[in-house]
Specification:
The structure is a single chain. This protein is α/β, with parallel strands linked by helices and 363 residues long. The strands form three sheets. A four-stranded parallel sheet has the order 2-1-3-4, sandwiched between helices. It has a four-stranded parallel sheet with strand order 7-6-8-9, with helices on both faces. Helix 6 crosses helix 16, helix 10 packs across helix 12 and helix 14 crosses helix 15. The longest helix has 26 residues. The chain is globular.
Length: 363
C-alpha cells in the first residue's frame, strides 16, 4: 500500500527492502522470530523447520508419484513451502486440476524455498542462495506453474533482478492465469452445483499476485522512457487486464454454478493486505491476525458466505482470524473450491505445446 498511497510515485517497496538490506549488511539483528526462520531455511531449505525429506511426503499419499522427477516433462509445478508443509490441500487440488486438464507436468524433489521472505526482510545473501539452488533444479524447464502468489512473484519479479543480469530461460504462469486463459479460449467451463447455488462468494486480491505486479508494470513503463513519462492509458489497460483474471473465473462460476459473486469495497490495487506477508506474521502475529480480521469484517459487511483467495499466506491468515474472531465465514482457496466441489468441466484438453507457448494475461 505504501507505493499506492504515495503521490510522488517513489518505488517505496524497493526503498524499504533496500533499507532492510543495508541493516542486514551492518549486522543489525532481525526480530527473533525472523532470525529463527532464517536459521531454519539456511539449515533445512524451508522456513518451517521441517526435514527436507518431508517436503513431498503428500505425493505418494495423494497418488501423484508418477509426476515426481519426471524428467521428460518440460512443465513443472513449483509447489512452495507453505503448500508442501502446511497447506497440502492447496498442492493436492492444483495437481488434481492439472491432471484433469491432461497437462504433463513434473514435481522436482530438489525444490527449495523460493526465498521470498528473505528478499522482503533484507537477507539477500540467503535469498540468492535459495534462488541459485532453484535455478539449477529447473535449468531444463520451459514453463513453471505456481499456486503460491509469493513464489510466483519471486520467480517472476525478484529472480530477474537478482540474477546478476543473466537471462532466465523459463516462463512463469500462475494457476489462476492458466484457468482464466482456458476459459477465454473456451476449453473449460464449470458444472452446476446445488450446494453452492445462491451462496455469496467474495474474492481477496493478494498483494503478491495483485498490486505488486501493478507497481512493477508502472516501473517497467517508466524505465522504457528516458524522460520518465509514459502512456497512463497503457498502464491502466495492463493493470485492468491483470486484475481481471480471477474475475474471469469467478464470473464463469457465477454463470455456471449459480453462485453469487460480490466484490468487497477495497479491491484490486486498493485491496487491504491480509497481514501475513513481508515477515509480519512471523514477527507480529497478533497484529497480523487483527489485519486479517479487518478483511473478514469487510466480507461480513457484504453478506459473504465464502471468502476466497489464491495465496497460501492469505488463506492461512484468514482461516486463523475467522476462527479466532468468529467471523462465521468459509475460507477457501479458489482452486481448492473448484476441486472440492468437482466443478471443472473439460471441453478441450490443452496439449503441452499450448501450455508452453501460453502467454499470461500480464502480456
Amino acid at each position: 500500500m505504501c507505493s499506492i498511497q504515495n503521490d510522488n510515485k517513489y518505488p517505496m517497496v524497493d526503498i524499504i527492502e533496500a533499507l532492510k538490506k543495508a541493516f542486514a549488511k551492518e549486522r543489525v539483528p532481525l526480530n527473533s522470530s525472523l532470525e529463527l526462520i532464517k536459521k531454519f531455511v539456511e539449515e533445512l531449505d524451508n522456513p518451517y523447520g521441517e526435514s527436507s525429506d518431508y517436503r513431498f511426503r503428500w505425493v505418494k499419499e495423494a497418488g501423484f508419484e508418477k509426476h515426481l522427477n519426471n524428467n521428460k516433462n518440460k512443465i513443472v509445478y513449483y509447489v512452495g513451502c507453505t503448500a508442501n508443509f502446511r497447506q497440502v490441500n492447496n498442492a493436492i487440488s492444483t495437481c488434481r486440476i492439472l491432471e484433469q486438464l491432461g497437462i504433463n507436468f513434473t514435481l522436482i524433489s530438489e525444490e527449495v524455498c523460493c526465498g521470498s521472505p528473505f528478499f522482503r526482510i533484507g537477507a539477500i545473501k540467503t535469498a540468492q542462495k535459495l534462488m541459485n539452488k532453484n535455478l539449477e533444479s529447473i535449468k531444463n524447464i520451459k514453463k513453471i506453474i505456481f499456486s503460491c502468489a509469493g513464489c510466483y512473484r519471486t520467480f517472476t519479479i525478484d529472480y530477474p533482478k537478482w540474477n546478476n543480469g543473466l537471462p532466465l530461460k523459463y516462463d512463469t504462469l500462475h494457476i489462476i492465469d492458466l484457468i482464466a486463459l482456458l476459459i477465454n479460449d473456451n476449453k473449460i467451463r464449470f458444472k452446476h452445483n446445488q450446494e453452492l447455488e445462491g451462496k455469496i462468494i467474495t474474492y481477496h486480491d493478494p498483494c503478491h499476485l495483485g498490486r505488486h505486479f501493478g507497481i512493477e508494470f508502472e516501473q517497467e513503463l517508466r524505465e522504457q522512457n528516458d524522460n520518465l513519462s509514459f502512456d497512463i492509458n497503457k498502464l491502466d489497460k495492463k493493470i485492468k487486464n491483470w486484475f481481471e483474471k480471477p474475475r474471469i473465473i469467478l464470473n464463469q462460476l457465477k454463470h455456471d454454478t449459480k453462485i453469487q459473486f460480490k466484490e468487497m469495497n477495497n479491491i484490486k490495487m486498493d485491496s487491504i493486505c491480509c497481514g501475513a506477508g513481508g515477515g509480519v506474521r512471523a514477527a507480529y502475529p497478533g497484529f497480523s491476525l487483527k489485519a486479517a480480521s479487518l478483511r473478514c469484517i469487510e466480507s461480513n459487511t457484504i453478506g459473504a458466505d465464502i471468502l476466497t483467495t489464491e495465496c497460501p499466506f492469505c488463506f492461512r491468515n484468514f482461516y486463523d482470524a475467522n476462527k479466532k474472531y468468529n467471523h462465521r465465514l468459509t475460507i477457501l482457496g479458489l482452486l481448492e473450491m473448484i476441486d472440492k466441489y468437482n466443478l471443472l468441466e473439460i471441453l478441450e484438453k490443452p496439449d503441452d505445446n499450448y501450455i508452453i507457448n501460453l502467454k499470461g494475461l500480464k502480456e
